[in-house]
Amino acid sequence: MSLELLSQLENKIQATLENIELLKMELEEEKQKNNELTEKNQQLQQDLNSWSDKVNGLVGLLNSEV
Questions:
Q1: How confident is the model at residue 66 (pLDDT cuts 50, 70, 90)?
Q2: Rounded mean pLDDT of the chain?
Q3: Is the Cα torsion angle 24, 26, 31, 35 positive or negative in sign?
Q4: Can you give 7-66 as a three-state secondary structure string?
Q5: Which of 11, 35, 14 is nearest to 27 (CA)?
Q6: Of the four, 17, 28, 33, 60, which is 20 to 30 A from 51 by CA?
C-alpha cells in the first residue's frame, strides 16, 4: 500500500469516528427527549383519568337526580 492510500484510509477512519461521536450525541439527545415526552404523557394520562373520574361522578349525580 502506498502512503497516499494509507493517508486516505486514515482520513476516512477519522471521519467515521467523528460521525460516530456525533451520532452518539444525537442518540443521547433523542433519549432525553423521549424521557421528557414519556413523563409528559404520564402527566397527561393522569389528567385525563382525573377528568374522566370527575365527569363520571357528575353523570352519576345527574342519574341519581332523575
A1: low
A2: 95
A3: positive
A4: HHHHHHHHHHHHHHHHHHHHHHHHHHHHHHHHHHHHHHHHHHHHHHHHHHHHHHHHHHHC
A5: 35
A6: 33
- Which cell goes with 1? 500500500
End-to-end CA separation in angstroms for the chain: 92
Cell numbers describing residue 40: 409528559
Express each pLDDT in 25-59 by its tens digit: 999 999 999 999 999 999 999 999 999 999 999 99
The arithmetic mean of pLDDT across residues 2-21, rounded, is: 97
Question: Which amino acid makes up residue 56?
Answer: N
